[in-house]
Please model this.
Amino acid sequence: MMAPSPSILPLELRDVSFEAGGKRLVKDFSCTFAGGKRSIVLGPNGAGKSLLLRLCHGLIRPSAGEVIWHGAGGGIDPASRQAMVFQRPVMLRRSVAANVDYALSLRGLDRSRRTALVDEALARAGLSRLAASPARVLSVGEQQKLALARVWALKPEVLFLDEPTASLDPSATHGVEEIIAAIHAAGTRIIMTTHDLGQARRLADEVLFLHRGRLLERATAEAFFAQPKNDLAQAFIRGELLWWRRGRDNLAARPGAPSEEGDPPCTVH
Amino acid sequence: MTDFGAAFAAAFAMVAGFDPDLAEIVGLSLQVSLLAVGLATVIGLPVGAAVALFRFPGRTALVVALNALMGLPPVVVGLIVYLLLSRAGPFGVLGLLFTPTAMIIAQVLLVTPIIAALTRQVVEDLWVEYEDQMRSLGAGPARALTALLWDGRFTLITAVLAGFGRASAEVGAVMIVGGNIDHVTRVMTTAIALEVSKGDLALALGLGIVLMTLSLAVNAAAFLVKETAQRHYG
Amino acid sequence: MHRSLSRFPAVALMIVVLALVVTQARAGERFITVTSTTSTQNSGLYGHLLPIFTGVTGIEVRVVAVGTGQAIRLARQGDADVLFVHHKASEEKFVAEGFGVARFDVMYNDFVIVGPKADPAKVRGMTDAAKALVKIAAAKAAFASRGDNSGTNKKELELWKTAGVDARGVSGSWYRETGSGMGATLNTASAMNAYALTDRATWIKFANKGDLAVMVEGDDRLYNQYGIILVSPAKHPHVKAKDGQAFIDWILSEDGQEAIAAYHISGEQAFFPNAARAGY
Model:
């Protein structure tokens, strides 16, 4: 429910680190997300993209540093103003409509108001005709659309999406991207990870490039795809990062930090 | 082998003849076991789910204890319930000893750990799959509990059936607290034990065949319901 | 609240109510609880006797059949109204300790020693039970004992004592304690061709005799007296003294005694009434 009350944004991560099993997986992460845009988080596997989203969304707590919703306070619970869509959506063993209804009931809406919101969300995601079907028998693409309808019904101010199309075919991907664009157009801040550079080009207003738990570059989509400043990011969008893996992450520790010129790519042993 | 032939003949004669004594015994067996399993389910499902979802001191010990209690010897449960319900015991004034209620109580004690322990496993596995999604939607363990039980319902049917199997098959507990009184607390298993003690092995085995058939019917019905529903809900 | 959540307490309540209804359905009835022995139950005597009594008085009799030792323990705890067993010494002790009102003789039959037809201990036809046991011990022939502190078990141990054999001292060798009821012990004896002491009524009714037959009978020491006792309402106020006493009175009455005498198994009289009644 996007109440007219003040925004919970901006979201600030201040020196956030996350450790698991003695390894620092997110390192000294600092950045601020203001309203409006669609931010796409890019980076190779293990860069910490999902962890970053989970830290922002509050599913995991930082080992050090702070996640601050500057607009929250005064009785506003930031958790109630945000939502997340996962790579593989978890559907409850009940009907399509009941899945959306359950999410709304968790936000404390009474039954009379929920029915209309459920119908509306399903209609916008193009799932109305499946409303009574059991959610678990839908195709993966339809399930992901349902996941989007479910969060859309909540009208969150910020929506996190963790590789929402990673297991979808091109046509389902297209459908999901349309819904994401529509959710954004309706006023929701989008923060999303993806492996799909084409998708990033289509959806991003700005790009955050992560590598081995560090934020190496943050730029507008236009600037980033024209020519990333960071050499690892350059390699990444050329699809050559694999060749750069060894011995490099300590050279470009900070966003925008200059990398050593003329360093030859490491070869794979 | 003549005993087996005679047993099947006895079983067939009892069923085909609609023996009223048999009908009474079968009816009481089902009544006691189904009610005991019903109560055990009402207790076991939330307890099992709570143990799966909440973290508290002593939780690991409780999990181990629940698993161990699945193998609780019926005779021991019978003895404990007897001591509790005996006139000289703390609940003696209720006059429940040697009644079907006493048998239900004993079977609830036997079956609840089974249902709770299996439920814990089912819900814990589901929670691994659901946790991020549920937390993201704003449901912590407490609010997710019933949703998880509902989503695990097809697997939980198996847990309840395991409980029913235990309840309908045990003889040690109901013999002690029920007393195997004719027309009052005589159920299939105690009737079988009685016929064995009379040396009428064919009749005992015949009763056993009837009991197994009943158990098979209950399980088959539950299986069909489960399969149909599961195919529908995915 | 979604639906499954709101439904759960309703279902739970329904099951509890159902359980209570099942219990209460039988609560209004007039009945007494009698603890008795497996031998009387297995012989089928109660199936013959009780419908007659209930027909006359309208009092239902619920029989819990266990070994005499356990039956006495149940009665001591106050879990029965009437005790109907067969070990006079234990019964008199029960009354002397104040748990019972008074003890009355009801009926008797006798014990027999059964054994395999091959008769490895050569005791067939003997009428001295103690001497027969000595021979069984000497032959180390298998002997199945109840081992459950029942009336039959106590009688058997007395006989071993008379025979001067410490059978329990060699328990596990040829002497085997089953720790179970008369029928179960006879099943065991039948399966391993062992000798065993049993009351005659159970033996006649027993259907799994296998290769066993009566070997020793007719010894005065094999006499098996049954007694009946009302559990003391002074000790246990909830005891249904009036209805319990009605049952005892009937069993000891001419009608009751005739009903006992009339019970036959395979054409044989199973129990011989011997109540001592004033003016009879």
